[in-house]
UniProtKB/TrEMBL annotation:
Pfam families: Pyr_redox_3
Keywords: Oxidoreductase
Descriptive protein name: MSMEG_0569 family flavin-dependent oxidoreductase
Membrane spanning residue stretches: none
Gene3D superfamilies: FAD/NAD(P)-binding domain (3.50.50.60)
GO molecular function: flavin adenine dinucleotide binding; monooxygenase activity
Organism of this sequence: Kineosporia babensis
InterPro entries: Auxin_biosynth/cation_transpt (IPR050982), CHP04046_FMN-dependent (IPR024000), FAD/NAD-bd_sf (IPR036188)
Length: 431
């Protein structure tokens, strides 16, 4: 493999201005590192540009108690499968950072940290990358920056009183970060539910505005549900097998947790223990916050998805004739009654903080290339964009459910390496 020392030393030690490489990879997270490993294995000269440092997003944009929701054995970066003592466990935040840093130490990719690409364009013959260390040129480019750069906070947040402390889930660290008083968490995707749980376990009073996110049981019939789904083949099902590809790509993830060895997140149980649940947030007028009358529908919908997954597992067990323990189905432990309010006063409820768990958007403002659809999403087929030589990697549902996770990035990186080699040969023939 090509290591750093095989690249021209002056390229890494000096400026990038005027340099020309066969391939540039933008982003040094798990996607960029996987791409680099595969390119090195194919002996393709390249460089990886990371604007911050290895593991930065995991270290700085996750809360203190964060853990993976997929089992450790599904960490399958190429050449770096999980080999720790807990394959069925769930790595916590700092262990994830160590996993990535160990990957870098293991195969020594040609990576430059602290280099930001501020503009990517094409001059008709090659790609031009304007960076914080000069302008670099490349025949082909892999954009591996992911889809979670810009925190999404609804404009309605501007209507909250100035005395209420607000932050996005990407900036939440721990309960001690918040002022005294109660907290309104908005959103019930994975982050919203896990942060609500974090506050709840710390003894903080939580108000939770729910949404339509589905849930999944952690374990069922003797195994982790994600292990069942892996064996059934769910993780290798390509996006083209779905009728609504755009809808599938943008679905909210099922909420569950890997905390303390993994368990269900049951919002009904939280309500029984004192967490106040509401429907979807509707309006804010001064200190009054209103909610839609859809709490029961949201809870029932999440449970229906979880039970549907169990149906798939039951059918698979029966088809294969597996000897697995029987398990009773879920019975709701709490139901919303007529006393669930549709509006509250923040001051009366002593709510001093709001956490917006409303997701992220990708930031492609630095890319000046005609490859985006009307919603700002890069048009591609398994990472191969409509512009020859430009690729994207690490996006959710780039090809499979695992494409944006440690589970499936390696498969996509290998596929793109094949495309890069094929395109390089085509370029030589044209030249």
């Amino acid at each position: 493999m090509k290591a750093k020392d095989d690249l021209s030393g002056h390229l890494l030690a000096g400026g990038l201005d005027g340099r020309h490489l066969p391939v540039a990879v933008i982003g040094g997270g798990q996607a960029g590192l996987a791409a680099s490993y595969c390119l090195s294995a194919a002996r393709v000269e390249h460089i990886v540009l990371e604007r911050r440092s290895i593991g930065h997003e995991w270290r700085e944009k996750r809360w203190d108690s964060f853990s993976l929701v997929t089992p450790n054995y599904q960490c399958l970066l190429p050449g770096h499968e999980y080999a720790g003592p807990a394959p069925d466990g769930f790595m916590v935040r700092d262990e994830i950072v160590d996993y990535l840093r160990d990957y870098v130490r293991k195969f020594d990719p040609p990576i430059l940290e602290g280099v930001e690409v501020t503009l990517l364009r094409h001059d008709g013959q090659r790609f031009e990358l304007q960076t914080s260390r000069g302008t670099l040129y490349a025949d082909q480019v892999v954009v591996a920056t992911g889809a979670y750069q810009l925190p999404r906070i609804p404009r309605i947040a501007e209507r909250l009183p100035g005395s209420v402390f607000q932050l996005h889930s990407g900036d939440y660290k721990n309960p001690q970060q918040l002022p005294e008083g109660e907290t309104l968490v908005v959103g019930t995707g994975q982050s919203g539910c896990q942060i609500a749980e974090d506050l709840h376990l710390a003894g903080r009073k939580v108000h939770l505005a729910t949404g339509t996110a589905p849930r999944v049981a952690r374990f069922y019939r003797g195994r982790d549900c994600m292990t069942w789904l892996d064996e059934i083949g769910h993780y290798t099902k390509g996006i083209t097998e779905f009728a609504d590809q755009d809808g599938t790509r943008h679905k909210v993830n099922h909420y569950v947790t890997g905390r303390d060895g993994g368990r269900d997140i049951d919002l009904r149980a939280f309500a029984r223990e004192g967490m106040q649940l509401y429907g979807r947030l509707s309006t804010i007028e001064g200190s009054t916050v209103s909610f839609q009358d859809d709490l029961k529908r949201n809870l029932d919908g999440a449970d229906a998805v979880a039970e549907g997954i169990k149906n798939l597992i039951d059918a698979y067990i029966a088809e294969k004739g597996l000897n697995q323990p029987e398990e009773p189905r879920y019975t709701p432990v709490w139901e919303p009654g007529p006393d669930v309010p549709d509006r509250i006063n923040l001051y009366t409820c002593n709510i001093s903080s709001v956490i917006w768990c409303t997701g992220f958007s990708a930031d492609y403002r630095w890319i000046d290339l005609p490859v985006f659809n009307g919603h700002g999403y890069p048009t591609h087929t398994r990472g191969v964009t409509s512009l020859p030589g430009l690729y994207v990697l690490g996006l959710p549902w780039l090809w499979t459910w695992g494409s944006g996770r440690f589970r499936g990035i390696g498969d996509d990186a290998r596929h793109l390496t094949e495309q890069i080699l094929r395109n390089a040969q085509l370029q030589k023939r044209v030249a």
